[in-house]
What we know:
The protein is an all-alpha fold. Helix content is 77%, strand content 0%.
Amino acid sequence: MGLVTESAELMDALKKSTYYGRDLDVVNVKEEAGDILWYLAILFDELDTTFEGEMDRVINKLRTRFPEKFTESDAFNRDLEQERNVLEQGE
């Protein structure tokens, strides 16, 4: 729940800058991003994993999805079974 709250606070700061023309409060954006990292650290600790491990897992999934580079075709025509297999290999 905390992760969702902090994400909403981050989006609110970005919304004010993007849609209402206010100056971006970079200090606040960094604070909210840090709060998000805090909640992710708690989650990863509970799941007995690390930031690095999950970053590697997602990178490997994306390499499976986009073997050469991003294409819209690959984005829309995903092999979800193959992606799942890559995700499960890291466990």
